[in-house]
């Protein structure tokens, strides 16, 4: 995990008891976690009367540093040890390190859920409707007699609430080909899982 | 032997041989399994080898397969007796065990390889991915309406997993700023900036328009700063240090260089364009060039402001026009159109004549102004030449006045002047001497200083190089440390994986037991050896004693034998006794030898019976029969054709 120089500087400020008292530190970390996760809490530090006496510029800097640290640590799935080494380098006392770890590790699943949401994806198939039609004849040909499958895939698309339909028709051979491809894909996944 | 068999079977299973679970020793191996296992081993050891892993049905094909297996094993360096197709096809336990021991030893060792070459982070990542995937694959499918916003609860590690794409969001980031260099007291923050920090700047989580973009923006900002820092460090290490400038100076120069480069490029392009197109474009470019120049000189963006002012002016002007026209419209138009036309014509003519008058006047005035300015210049020149003249004349007048003053007492004055000249010459000489005396040490000092300077410079150069070296070393050690950290992590994870394998500790325990056993046996062997040695010694001493006593008695009796007949008889008996005993000893020794031979033979019988000769022979005869049949059918086929 790498952190930028300004972020580290701000974290050092957070560890300085001259700026942030021990009592406020825990609250600040909790606020930082909640500010990232919940939209209604995005300005929670500004609204909290507990932080009235702290210099606003320092408070903003410290908050920014902690938020960056929390996001990066959640991104890298850092454990207690990794965080402790970073905070020790930032001259944190062991009490504060423990407090940070306690709050952060309890919030880590939520943070990772949030970060896991940030992604792009192909449409994700969740369901399928199908129909088998029998094509008897048309105006040009008296006798055709072939089977036609109408397939309607239900897919989930990023940033869309509703399921989207993907419709196509195919002959038996094409459908078999599709099924073969799907089997190949499944095998591929299993192979990767076996390593 | 059981232990060895278990190890062999375990390693055969680990390389992917298909062995039944209840196979415990090599005795249970049939020809089929032996062939398959050997082929698998060879495939793992040699890599690309073209052998069928199942026993072919035809006898001749079997024979060929066995022969090629034997060849391959011998190519690997097997030295345990003669090896042929019969070893594999008509196996006996001991030989097969030997071959498998050899092959298992030859197997490439995975664990040692893993310890030698460090696995990259990518390998670890791949492993993590595969374990996660196998977790996910082991779960049954569940419909999307059972998941809360695409999240499925599970029992394993993180407690949840994301499925589907319905709640994903794209990675969008925007600029985020935090107050910086607050902790550093040495850098002063401007008042405006600090007041902005205090009152107006929003908190980081409140800066993006949409809250969900906060996390990407924070990550982006962090990554951007790290990347910039790294880039700068690289450049500073490579070019910056060698230039021996301070960082600010280096940055300033770089900026200048870049601006100049841009200017040159644009100039070149504009020249190229000039040939092709009109002047409009080039004049535009010229303007840009000028703006660049002013920027680089003053560092203040004036042009932007001026342009802004310009547009502003234009806008206002338009507005005024509009209001004017609106006012004009407001005046009621009562006159008829013809009158209006006339009025307008008159007005235009009047204005035109006025304009003409005015322009003529202007031209006249212009000409006059030009004339006057030309006159003024001429007059100024005249004044300056006159002033010079007067100065020269003043100087000459002064000199002449002096000489005239001196004229009345010419002789004395000349003498005085001479003395003045002499003294001044003397003084000059003195000064020159003094100068000389001052000059020499000064020059020396100068030289010394110059030398010192050059030395210092070379030292600085050296120090610079040292610094560079140190930087490289620093980087190397940092890299090393990082690599080792990673390696340690890997090894720890590897170790955690390994501990699941209980066999290992069991093996080591067994090995230790075996070693202890061997030690005990060795001690016993040593004891027995000592015993035999002592027995041998005793035998030797006894036989020596016997020899000596015999010779002594022999002599004694021999001496008396000449005198007495009875003694003679006794002597003969003695000789016979001696001979008989010798024979007895010989027989005892012979029985010992025979006993040993018997034991050897028994062992040999056991070995031979182990070799399953009978069953193998039966097999061979059967195979021979089959081969004959095959040959017969082949011949029949050939004949039939």
From TrEMBL, chain A:
Pfam families: COMM_domain, COMM_HN. Residues 124-193 form the COMM domain. GO terms for biological process: sodium ion transport. Belongs to the COMM domain-containing protein 3 family. PANTHER family: COMM DOMAIN-CONTAINING PROTEIN 3 (PTHR31159:SF1). This is COMM domain-containing protein 3.
Automatic annotation (TrEMBL), chain B:
Residues 341-382, 598-637 form a coiled coil. GO terms for molecular function: cullin family protein binding. It holds the Pfam family CCDC22_N. Keywords: Coiled coil. Residues 127-611 form the CCDC22 coiled-coil domain. One of its GO terms (biological process) is positive regulation of ubiquitin-dependent protein catabolic process. The keyword Ribonucleoprotein does not apply. Residues 1-108 form the CCDC22 N-terminal domain. It comes from the Eukaryota. PANTHER family: COILED-COIL DOMAIN-CONTAINING PROTEIN 22, JM1 PROTEIN. Belongs to the CCDC22 family. This is Coiled-coil domain-containing protein 22 homolog.
């Amino acid at each position: 995990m790498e952190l930028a120089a300004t972020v580290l500087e701000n974290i050092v400020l957070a560890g300085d008891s001259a700026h942030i008292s021990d009592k406020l530190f825990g609250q600040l970390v909790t606020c930082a976690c909640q500010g990232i996760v919940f939209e209604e809490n995005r300005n929670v530090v500004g609204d909290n009367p507990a932080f009235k006496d702290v210099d606003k510029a320092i408070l903003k800097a410290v908050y920014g540093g902690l938020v960056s640290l929390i996001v990066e640590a959640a991104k890298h799935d850092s454990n207690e040890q990794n965080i402790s080494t970073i905070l020790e380098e930032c001259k944190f006392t062991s009490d504060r390190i423990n407090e940070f770890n306690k709050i952060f590790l309890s919030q880590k699943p939520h943070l990772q859920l949030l970060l896991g949401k940030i992604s792009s994806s192909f449409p994700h198939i969740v369901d399928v409707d199908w129909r088998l039609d029998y094509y008897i004849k048309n105006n040009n040909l008296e006798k055709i007699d072939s089977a036609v499958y109408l397939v309607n895939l239900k897919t989930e698309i990023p940033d869309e609430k509703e399921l989207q339909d993907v419709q196509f028709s195919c002959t038996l051979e094409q459908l078999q080909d599709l099924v073969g491809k799907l089997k190949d894909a499944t095998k591929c996944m299993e192979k990767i899982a076996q390593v | 032997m059981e232990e060895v068999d278990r190890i062999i079977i375990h390693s055969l299973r680990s390389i992917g041989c298909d062995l039944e679970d209840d196979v415990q020793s090599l005795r249970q191996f049939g020809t089929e399994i032996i062939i398959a296992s050997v082929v698998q081993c060879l495939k793992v050891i040699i890599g690309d080898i073209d052998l069928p892993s199942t026993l072919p049905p035809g006898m001749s094909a079997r024979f060929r397969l066995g022969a090629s297996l034997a060849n391959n094993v011998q190519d690997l360096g097997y030295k345990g007796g003669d090896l042929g197709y019969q070893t594999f096809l008509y196996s006996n336990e001991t030989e097969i065990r030997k071959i498998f021991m050899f092959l298992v030893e030859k197997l490439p060792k995975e664990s040692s390889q893993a310890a030698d070459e460090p696995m990259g982070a990518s390998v670890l990542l791949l492993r993590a991915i595969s374990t996660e995937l196998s977790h996910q694959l082991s779960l049954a499918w569940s419909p999307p309406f059972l998941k809360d916003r695409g999240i499925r609860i599970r029992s394993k590690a993180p407690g949840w997993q994301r499925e589907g794409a319905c709640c994903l969001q794209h990675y969008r980031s925007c600029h985020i700023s935090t107050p910086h260099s607050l902790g550093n007291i040495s850098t002063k923050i401007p008042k405006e900036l600090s007041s902005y920090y205090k009152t107006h700047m929003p908190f980081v989580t409140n800066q993006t328009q949409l809250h969900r973009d906060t996390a990407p923006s924070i990550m982006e900002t962090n990554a951007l700063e790290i990347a910039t820092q790294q880039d700068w460090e690289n450049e500073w290490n490579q070019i910056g240090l060698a230039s021996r400038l301070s960082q600010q100076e280096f940055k300033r120069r770089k900026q200048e260089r870049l601006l100049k480069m841009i200017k040159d490029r644009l100039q070149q392009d504009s020249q190229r364009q000039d040939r092709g197109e009109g002047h409009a474009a080039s004049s535009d470019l010229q303007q840009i060039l000028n703006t660049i120049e002013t920027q680089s000189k003053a560092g203040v963006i004036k042009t932007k402001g001026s342009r802004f002012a310009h547009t502003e002016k234009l806008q206002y002007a338009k507005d005024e026009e509009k209001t004017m026209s609106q006012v004009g419209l407001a005046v009621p138009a009562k006159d008829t159109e013809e009158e209006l036309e006339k009025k307008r014509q008159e007005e235009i003519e009047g204005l035109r004549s006025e304009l003409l008058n005015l322009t003529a006047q202007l031209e006249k005035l212009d000409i006059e102004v030009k004339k006057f300015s030309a006159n003024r210049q001429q007059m100024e020149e005249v004044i300056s030449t006159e002033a010079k003249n007067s100065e020269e004349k003043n100087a000459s007048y002064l000199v002449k006045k002096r000489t005239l003053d001196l004229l009345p007492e010419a002789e004395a004055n000349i003498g005085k002047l001479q003395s003045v000249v002499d003294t001044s010459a003397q003084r000059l000489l003195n000064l020159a001497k003094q100068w000389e005396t001052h000059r020499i040490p000064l020059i020396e000092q100068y030289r010394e200083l110059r030398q010192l300077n050059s030395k210092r410079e070379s030292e600085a150069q050296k120090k610079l190089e040292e610094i560079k070296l140190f930087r490289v070393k620093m980087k190397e050690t940092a890299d090393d440390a990082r690599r080792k950290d990673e390696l340690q992590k890997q090894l720890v994870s590897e170790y955690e994986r390994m501990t699941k394998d209980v066999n290992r500790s069991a093996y080591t325990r067994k090995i230790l037991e075996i070693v202890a056993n061997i030690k005990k046996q060795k001690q016993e062997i040593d004891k027995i050896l000592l015993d035999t040695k002592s027995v041998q010694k005793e035998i030797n001493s006894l036989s020596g004693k016997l020899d000596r006593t015999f010779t002594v008695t022999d002599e004694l009796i021999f001496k008396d034998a000449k005198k007495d007949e009875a003694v003679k008889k006794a002597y003969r008996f003695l000789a016979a006794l001696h001979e008989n005993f010798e024979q007895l000893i010989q027989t005892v020794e012979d029985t010992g030898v025979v006993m040993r031979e018997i034991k050897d033979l028994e062992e040999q019988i056991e070995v031979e019976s182990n070799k399953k000769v009978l069953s193998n022979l039966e097999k061979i005869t059967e195979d021979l029969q089959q081969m004959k049949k095959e040959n017969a059918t082949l011949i029949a086929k050939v004949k039939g054709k």
